[in-house]
Amino acid sequence: MIHDDLGEALALLSEHADVVASRPSDASAPTWAVRRGWDESLLALDDDALALAETDPAGVLARHAHPSLSDAMGRAQRLITRYASQRMASGARDEPHVKARKRAQLEILVEAARERFDDVPRFVDYGAGHGHLTRALLHALEVEAIGIDWTAESVTRARELAGDRGPTFVHADASTESRLLRGGELLVGLHPCGALGDAIVEHAITHRAHVMMVSCCFQKVPGDTRVFLSKAAKGFAVPQHALGLANLAPESFDGSGDAVDKRRRRRDRMALRFALEARGVVLEPGAEARGVNKDRVRHGLDDIATLAFAARRLSPASPEELADATAKADRVHASVARFSLPRSALGRVLEIAIVLDRAQRLEEAGHQVEVTPLFSPRISPRNLGLFARAR
Ligand SMILES: C[S@@+](CC[C@H](N)C(=O)[O-])C[C@H]1O[C@@H](n2cnc3c(N)ncnc32)[C@H](O)[C@@H]1O
Fold first, then answer.
1. How far is the CA of 147 from the centre of ligand 1 (A)?
2. How many CB atoms within 10 Å of residue 390?
3. Ligand 1 touching residue 129 (CB < 6 A)
4. Does the pTM of the predicted model rise above 0.90?
5. Total Cβ atoms within 10 A of residue 327
6. Which of 132, 133, 177, 191 to mutate to test the pocket of ligand 1 (most atoms within 8 A of CB)?
């Protein structure tokens, strides 16, 4: 299953490498869309279909589009559906300093660890952050527990929260720190950044350790490409700049699990860009929001324009300037949103491919592996659990 699904994911990514590599940013049709004859079907999607495609781009394109687009997206959808979960947590665990969505992740991971790894002598949490998972697992498994993180402030906070009888927290680069491993332990990682996820896999192989990991932040790798790990992937590589695609969330949710209007936020950012450019400001891609905290984008264009103009020592934008910029952004965004859909669908395929590749690498080294979606994207869009038992 893992081998076959990895093969299908890599086939889809290879056939659409140009789609993965280039992000639509203006109203003109991308070369890859014109070359395949997809541009008109994409532009013809009505607003209702576009709204649905925000959460299910592969599903909508599989039904609506050009035959070869429909075929490719149908394949993507079948794969994505196999790795989808709508599971929510019961919310029983209550720690006031841990956010609700993190508590839900902990609850489900603790249950998964109890089911699969209740016999391990100890575990090591890679990229432990504030140690929420480390504490929760120690409580559940009652074995020796170590958390490693390379951010000093996180280690200090983790020690404070843990108190005297908690896990041991170590300040170190976990990707090179293997002195702590004796073999046979469980290596855990909840959203370990890109390269750290690969390091967990390699350490588990070297030390015949078990793995429980939910991967994340695939773009955080050194160098300009990520070369896949398994023999089955045969040196398949993805440019670093395209890896962020695997970290996209078709739909996102705020801390309390409410859906965020991403389309509106993107439109507002684009309008901000046009308003600044109309004043003669020259901007690198993505630079329009300099001076604006990411969370402020939800307050709307007036608010972010006030901050972004002030950060550049410009006089405030007038209502007319903002209205012109909004009208232009509405026109351009309508095309960009449609042209972005195939790439969004392939983003989840890329994420699945990376996680399956890690699993396949472990299987090739003799581990017994399982990849399963653990929770709803409402809890976190990075929800693919990789479990591996050393044999
Ligand atoms: C997204 S956070 C997840 C934190 C924690 N596992 C959780 O779920 O709350 C990733 C953490 O990994 C840490 N990290 C990333 N690469 C690391 C490395 N090579 N060695 C140690 N820590 C690392 C970061 O400092 C950060 O605390």
1. 10
2. 20
3. yes
4. yes
5. 11
6. 191
**CA-wise closest residue to 368 among 210, 256, 255:** 210
**CB 253 less than 6 A from any atom of ligand 1:** no
Number of domains in the chain: 3
Tens of pLDDT, residues 216-271: 999 999 999 999 999 999 999 999 999 999 988 766 655 555 566 777 888 899 99
**Domain extent for 50:** 2-84+340-346
Residues 62 and 104 grouped into a single domain = no
36 Cα–ligand 1 center, Å? 41
Residue 270: inside a domain, yes or no?
yes
Query: Is the C-beta atom of 352 inside 6 A of ligand 1?
Result: no
Residues with Cβ within 8 Å of 218's Cβ and at least 6 positions away in sequence, in order, are: 194, 197, 226, 243, 244, 246, 247, 350, 351, 354
pLDDT of residue 316: 96
Atom of ligand 1 nearest to the CA of 193: 15
pLDDT tens for 133-167 read 999 999 999 999 999 999 999 999 999 999 988 99
C-beta of residue 291 within 8 angstroms of C-beta of residue 349 = no
| Residues 66 and 205 placed together within one structural domain of the fold | no
The pLDDT of residue 263 is 77
**Residue 142 sits in the same domain as residue 270:** no
- Domain-located, residue 245: no
Best mutation site among 107, 126, 132, 375 for ligand 1, i.e. most ligand atoms within 8 A of its Cβ? 126
Classified as helix, coil or strand, 219 is coil
Closest residue to atom 23 of ligand 1, CA basis: 127
Ligand 1, atom 17, residue with closest C-alpha: 127
Q: Ligand 1: distance of its center to the CA of 192 in Å?
A: 5
Q: In CATH, what number is assigned to the domain containing residue 196?
A: 3.40.50.150
Query: What per-residue confidence (pLDDT) applies to 260?
Result: 61
Q: What is the mean pLDDT of residues 298-305?
A: 88
Collapse the DSSP code of 326 into the 3-class scheme (helix H, G, I; strand E, B; otherwise coil) and give the result.
helix
Residue 242 within a domain: no
- Is residue 231 domain-shared with residue 194, that is, in the same domain? yes
